[in-house]
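re: ur question from yesterday

yeah so i grabbed the chain u mentioned. its 267 aa long if i counted rite. heres the sequnce exactly as i have it in my notes:
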Amino acid sequence: MISRSQTQAPLKVQRPFYPEGSQVCHTVLLHTAGGIVGGDRLSLDIHLHPDALALITTAAAAKVYRSSGAEATQTVQIHLAAGACLEWLPQEAIVFDGAIYRQDLQVELAPGATWVGWDITRLGRTARGEKFLGGEWRSRTQVWQQGRPLWIDPQYLVGGSEMLVSPHGLAECPVIGSFALIGQTVSPELVSQIRSLFPLAAFPSRQVPSSQASSSQVGATRLMSGLLCRYRGNSTAEARQWFTQVWNLLRPIYLGRSVCMPRVWQV
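ran it thru and got these structure tokens back, copy pasting raw so excuse formatting
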């Protein structure tokens, strides 16, 4: 259960749900302004008590609008006490052409704590033919445990830059995503299982018929204390579907429970 909650507009914490019973708290964050504009400063500070289990998501996709020059930022600080487990699974972010946006996420793990998180971003409103030709997108995720870095992941993209079209960058794919499990040991065999969840064409090293080729690519690798999965492609739905399959495979291992989809995703 939530022991203490303090919010200030435009952020709001909705009433928690317990679809898995009283041990796991599902919580939804709501951004009442409907979008993020240049100059906005969003800040979240989340603490989990010892052995607490929680899943946090958002009510809808985040929209980051074009800026006239000011940077919009979102800073998230997460502190997990011993034995706690947080599943940080926000819905995707749509970064409009011309947006200037920075997101910083820092997680502090006590011994025995586990953090699972994903981030899915679409650069430009591609359904309208929009490309990310101007602006900036920055993302920095850090996970620490007792002063030791477990995973630090800085990303930086400039609208209209070579990185967006280069095969060594996004290869003209407007959707990028990351899924990470930190605080648990992952075996090489489990990584192989995770890779097999995505179509074979996602792995260029494998020979598949050209008719089965996919423009999306994924990767999965072990970290010092966990696992990292990457996605680049054209569909936020595809990215979420693969991440959900990975989550479905991992959750019984790190939490001893099968996946329980947040009800807000069904809306």
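noticed a couple things. The two ends are 23 Å apart (CA to CA). also The longest helix spans residues 236-254.
anyway ttyl
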